[in-house]
Amino acid sequence: MDSQKLDVTEEKIAWSKEAIRKKVKNSESIALKRHNIDSYILLDLDKILDDAYCSFRPVPADYDTRKELVKNLNAMAIDIYGNSEESSPVLEAYGSFVMDMYTSQSYLDVSIIFGNGTSELPHEKKLQILERFAEKLRSLEGEGLVRNVVSIFAARVPIVKFNDQGTAIDCDVSVECKDGILSSQIIRIISQIDDRFQKLCLLVKRWAKAHGVNDASLQTLNSISITMLVAHHLQTQNPPILPPFSTLFKDGIDPPNVEKRTQKFLNWGGRNQESLGKLFATFFIKLQSVKVLWKQGLCASVLKGLWISKRRKRALINVKKSIL
Fold first, then answer.
1. Are strands 159-164 and 298-301 parallel, antiparallel or unpaired?
2. Top-confidence residue, 21 or 279
3. Do 189 and 252 meet the contact criterion of CB atoms below 8 Å apart?
4. Continuous segment of H or E residues that includes residue 182
5. Domain of residue 131, CATH code
6. pLDDT at residue number 297
7. Confidence (pLDDT) at 155
8. Structural domain range at position 40
9. Which of 22, 23, 234, 273 could form a disulfide with 241 if both were Cys (CB 3.0 to 4.6 A apart)?
10. 30 lies in some domain
11. Residue 136: helix, strand or coil by DSSP?
12. Residues 150 and 165 in one domain
């Protein structure tokens, strides 16, 4: 009897997923016909996007400046904790800088890492660590070296924010954000498969920032969600431009193994010759077309490279932000 119930449940789940994918396909098809993107307009859009991309791409000096800032933050950690390998943490960059999807105005995300232990630090311990760094930063603020030091401890991921006066770069410092570091490294590796991924991410995030919809504190999409939505958009093209991420993780999720697998997929999406302009336009058309389906459990999964159905409490855009 239990086995029969399980079979019925699995059948319902499979039907639900297939049904929601059919709805997505139908909604997107109708939306594309309605908008009827003109090829001449796309040529103009390609030129505009290419100019925009080139205008805010970092130059080599921007890379060097951020690397030097991370180096200075590690020197600050030694001032706080001493030079003992056992007790002194390492500050490691992650986020858009590591993914190479940033501009010179982007925040620099840095995490304080203690050792190679896999156990999660208690929340209170993380707050104590951040407070020590905040105190040091406030002393540097008094010397005019940094400014706008703000502790945000009530957030889901507690951080200390500040602006480095020497570089004018805004920084967010967290503690033990190992998943974020790993995800950033993996996304950077995967972006080698097709350069449209990196370009489209930068352009969409720039658009989102300009329209005030790239701020998790305001209940809008954070940068990793936007990155995952762009990846999913490329995975669901016909033919697809990116493979399901699960295909790239068959030998494990550590960056060296993902790198080896990724090398086998370079130019994997070459059969799809869609321009950056068309991919940019259809990204927004696609999201608009499935707007009503979010309430029905629609979820974008980059791991499977598919639309899936997932129950949740709030009817917002649902993207599986973890790529692992």
1. unpaired
2. 279
3. no
4. helix 178-190
5. 3.30.460.10
6. 82
7. 84
8. 15-56+182-309
9. 234
10. yes
11. helix
12. yes
The token pair at 124 is 């209170």
Q: Quick one: pLDDT at residue 6?
A: 40
CA 199 – CA 201 distance, rounded (Å): 5
Whether 224 and 142 map to the same domain: the answer is no
The structural domain count of the chain equals 2
CA–CA separation, 141 and 163 (whole Å): 9
CA distance 271 to 192: 16
Give 270's pLDDT tier (boundaries 50, 70, 90): very high
Residues 109 and 199 in one domain: no
Domain assignment present for residue 8? The answer is: no
Both tokens of 24, joined, read 């997505």
Q: Has residue 56 got a pLDDT over 70?
A: yes
DSSP state of 196: H
DSSP lists the bridge partners of residue 164 as 146, 169
- Model confidence at 306: pLDDT above 70: yes
Question: Binning pLDDT at 50, 70 and 90, where does residue 120 land?
Answer: confident
Prediction pTM value: 0.87
Which residue's entry shows tokens 């329209």? 211
Separation between Cα atoms, residue 74 and residue 223, nearest integer Å: 25
Say if residue 72 is in the same domain as residue 165. Answer: yes
Query: Are 206 and 302 members of one domain?
Result: yes
Q: Which residues contact 154 (CB under 8 A, 6 or more apart)?
A: none
Domain boundary at 176, 208, 236, which?
A: 176
Mean pLDDT of the chain: 87
